[in-house]
# Entry
Amino acid sequence: MTEPTPAVRRSHGRAAGALRPCRIEIDVLKFAEGSALIELGDTRVLIAASVDTRVPAFLKDSGQGWVTAEYSMLPRATHTRTMREVAQGRPSGRTSEIQRLIGRSLRAVVDRSAMPDRSITVDCDVLQADGGTRTAAITGAYVALTLALARLLLRNDLKAWPLGDPLAAVSVGIVGGQPLLDLEYEEDRDAEVDMNVVATAGGSLVEIQGTGERRSFQRAEMDALVDLAMHGIAQLAAVQAAVLEGTLREVAEVRGRTRRQAPAKPERDLWGPPR
# Structure
């Protein structure tokens, strides 16, 4: 008879399908158009969204805006000090991959034609890393981006609201034979299978990064991990909605007024064609 796999003991006394305690604080920076500090367990990421009136050369005269991201970690965000990448002259491969992931994810929920001639750079700086820094960065980046776009709309710099469904991300994995949600550092280190899932609150997948770290995995295991991730993303989206409630209420009021103000018809349309 096969003995059952013992349950993995987790920090915060949480179950296999539970997130770490999540907190998002908004408007934490004085000068950025949008900013947020996300805390997911002991992982902390500071995010700033900065607006520019220039777009990359490949978008010039296209009528489209741009959203991009940068990512970095403080030297002592980890257990031992890491050399600053600026001292090495270029970002590491890991950093480049993560910031491209964040930028791609954000662009997936933005109608860039609604923000012409505007670029938003979202800077994600990891203050403390205990697993899941890239997914926490995406979840917090959506909040900072929303705040920046809301500021543009409220001061009439945008004519339409560019954002679609809320976006969040979370890690999942198989540790000790058990699927787990929101891996912290030690769980991520020991994971047999590791996966990052980016999705919208409406249930649409944006990106899945999955790796068999110590073994291959079956399609059924992958599906179970994605389901677990979607459960976590729904909870993260609820946290986002709570901190953005006031801002989104203002946005809804502005959008409602815009819809009610029908454009005036040209005079020739009022009188009809000449006879």
The chain has one domain: 20-78+94-256. The first helix runs from residue 85 to 88. The mean pLDDT is 91. The radius of gyration is 22 Å.
